[in-house]
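Researcher: Re-running this chain for the archive, since the previous output was lost when a drive failed. Same request as before.
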Amino acid sequence: MRCSDGRFTCFLVDTRPDCHLPISPASALAGVVVPLGGISQELVEALRGGGRLEARIAGRGRDGSPACASVPLLVPGWHVRH
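Model: Regenerated structure tokens:
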């Protein structure tokens, strides 16, 4: 699910239940693609006063496994938290 202008970012997520242990080649790592649409100039300007840009995604797929690939943002989408 890329945003309408095609902008996105990708995060590598450690899906192991024992993620406090060192990562090995056999580790269950998943890529999560997050759309950047909705990051307006107003949000960027609001960051100048401090705060951070946040958005939430669903952490699980339809089958209950960890989310991977393209994931939609949960409501309210991108926002600034002070």
